[in-house]
Specification:
Layout (H helix, E strand, L loop, with lengths): L1 E2 L3 H4 L31 E5 L4 H13 L7 E3 L28 H7 L7 E2 L2 E4 L4 E4 L2 H10 L18 H16 L1 H6 L4 H22 L12 H17 L14 H11 L10 H11 L55
Parallel strand pairs: 2-3
Antiparallel strand pairs: 1-4, 2-5, 5-6
């Protein structure tokens, strides 16, 4: 997620098209592309507001890569120079020493197309961006970074399931992950209606799939669940109202609401979610569709912690592995962003 130029004001005034990641280098175990996996060499820059970045935050935590891949959290309120490190002392990332993520982009390529987006992986020693390929990044964390995984880390991208995972994730991306944006940033009625209808058509199909199984693919957590979760957790707070995806609320669908709560209550999912960052980002940054910048008070978040009953479907969340340990002190979500 990112913007360029007058992007914040342009939302809702021009046809939405998601840019393809411009920097698609991969960090691999054998370093075949020039970027070898190496503990401490890179810094993952994220916003807790961004669903695409949240995929990487969840994967990193489930796999136990916190020490191997340190993380920087940007201010949820962008300005037109991009993501800012105003949450840090003196407004600079303490490791990279920069005020704006755009500085790392400029060190790689000045004036690059597609804007400045997160997640982004930066090479610490040079301060240069390595990749902003949000689609590939988490797959590589699950596979190429395996030697640095914690003991008991789950297999989030099992080889035997990759064909099925690819199909499910492509459908979720087109109709749900990206569909809510196409609806929210539509500039014409027909464009909006088609996107919105696609969102709910896919959600209904996913609800049918999940009515009889605990997880999207197989009986364990996978990359597919992470990708669906990051949209579902934002649905009622943001997409239902702000993006006009309002045929029904997530909390009104018994299957998807239970599934989302199940994931939220699983270590590695809900403990990475910051509802305060999410709401302030969408409602204050997208001035093209919310010119007042007013952030709504609701919805009530307490129900995210209510019983979900999905255990009755069986499943083994972490397969033969174990849950991640406690969230590192420096990465805990502030009380304002968590359900009470």
């Amino acid at each position: 997620m990112g913007g360029d130029g007058d992007g914040n004001r342009a939302y809702g005034h021009r046809t939405f098209s998601r840019s393809r990641s411009h920097f698609r280098d991969r960090i691999t175990a054998d370093g075949r592309g020039g970027w070898p996996v190496e503990a401490g060499r890179y810094r993952l820059v994220v916003s807790r507001a961004c669903p695409w970045a949240s995929r990487a935050v969840i994967s990193r935590r489930l796999l136990g890569l916190e020490d191997a891949l340190p993380m920087a959290v940007a201010d949820p309120i962008q300005d037109d120079r991009s993501w800012r490190f105003t949450l840090d002392p003196d407004g600079r990332d303490p490791v990279l020493g920069i005020r704006y993520l755009s500085e790392a982009y400029d060190r790689r390529e000045t004036g690059c197309p597609g804007g400045v987006s997160v997640p982004a992986v930066v090479d610490v020693s040079s301060g240069r961006l390595v990749t902003n390929d949000y689609q590939q990044l988490t797959l590589d964390l699950a596979t190429e970074w395996r030697d640095l995984h914690r003991e008991g880390a789950p297999d989030l991208y099992p080889a035997a399931r990759r064909d099925e995972l690819g199909t499910v994730m492509a459908e979720v991306y087109e109709d749900v992950n990206n569909g809510v944006y196409r609806a929210g940033f539509a500039t014409h009625q027909k464009e909006y209606e088609e996107a919105c209808a696609g969102v709910f058509r896919r959600l209904e199909l996913l609800a049918e799939r999940l009515a009889g199984q605990r997880y999207l693919v197989g009986d364990t957590l996978t990359e597919a669940d992470i990708r669906l979760f990051t949209t579902l957790v934002r649905f009622d707070p943001v997409y239902h109202g702000h993006f006009k995806c309002n045929r029904w609320k997530l909390a009104e669908d018994p299957v998807l609401w239970a599934y989302a709560r199940d994931l939220f209550q699983t270590p590695g999912f809900g403990d990475t979610v910051d509802f305060d960052h999410i709401k302030r980002h969408y409602y204050r940054v997208h001035t093209g569709i919310n010119p007042t910048g007013i952030v709504p008070l609701g919805p009530d978040l307490a129900n995210w912690l209510s019983p979900h009953g999905r255990e009755e479907l069986g499943g083994r969340p972490f397969g033969d592995g174990t849950p991640p340990g406690p969230v590192p002190p420096g990465e805990r979500v502030a009380p304002a962003g968590r359900p009470a």
